[in-house]
Structure formats: structure tokens, C-alpha cells
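Supplementary Note 3. Input sequence used for the single-chain structure prediction.
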Amino acid sequence: MAGSSSGIVAGLTTAALVTVGVLAYQASANVPAGLGRPHATASPAPGASKAPRDSRNPTALPAGSGTGERVVYSLDDDRVWLVGAGDKVQRTFEVTPSAVDPPPGTYAVTSRSNRVTGSDGVPVEHVVRFADVKGVVVGFSAAVDGSTAEPDPRLRTGGIRESRADGEAMWQFATIGEKVVVIR
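The predicted structure, written as C-alpha cells, is reproduced below.
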């Protein structure tokens, strides 16, 4: 009996290890680029140098800003597009840029906080972080008081400010792993 009992235990242990191995492989295959690293890294986005704009409709999604569900952030236009399935724009809005810009490229949302104090000392909500530029964490946020003041150029801050309503929309849309494409 003792021999068959240890054989059963060994069989169950092997089955458990195989199951854990399969689950670990599946999980690693589904981790978006940039997650699990101490800092998000950029990779060149298609058309990252300067995405063409539709002069008749300046709020139109720029060509060359990627495909699929994503957040598109234009450094030159200080504008964000929340792009859903089928490349359909769900919302677009203006933002106040941070003092530190992330380089154009493709990132992933790495962390989120409901309410914190921003690097500029302002209480913020709906913080969606996606990049690290030389030690400055960059992300979208809304000031709790609704302000969108220009950042102090003497401070190295990474908060891209949006209105509270736009911050709520970003919070609902940009969960951990969501793609963020930064363009010129």
C-alpha cells in the first residue's frame, strides 16, 4: 500500500507541475511589452517621426498611429485619442503636457493609482502611468481641483494633465497593459 500511495502522490505532483508550467507559459505569452520591467521602454511607432494630419479635421486620428485598441498621445498637438475596437475613436481631448516628454514610440500602461499626490505636489486622480524617462515617471492624470496649469519648467515632472471628465474616461479605458502610442 505504501508503494502505491507514493506512486499516486508522485503522479499528482507531476500533473500539478505540468499544469503550473502550462499556465506560466500561457501567462508569459500574454504579457504586453514593457510589463514586468522596472521601466517601460519605447519601440518605434509606425510614423513616429511626424504622423500625417487631416487639415480639414484636426481632431481626426492621425494616420500612422498604430492599429488596434490603444491610447494615442500627440506631443505636437497636446491631444489624446482613445481608440477602441476596429480603430474607432471613442474619445479625443486636449491635454496639458508634462515638463518631461516621453520619446515617440509604443508603450504599455504599467501602473495606475486612483488618487495620489503628483510629482508637482498637486493632488491628482485617475493616474495612468506608461513610461519612465531618465527617472521621471510619465502618465496621464487629472488634478482633483480640476486645474490644468502649465508645468513649472524648472521641475522634472511627468504628469500629463487632463480634465476630470477626460481623466475618468482614460481611467475606464486604459487598464494595465493597454497600448499607448506616442507620436510627434
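The chain has two domains: 1-30, 70-183. The helical segments are 2-29, 164-173.
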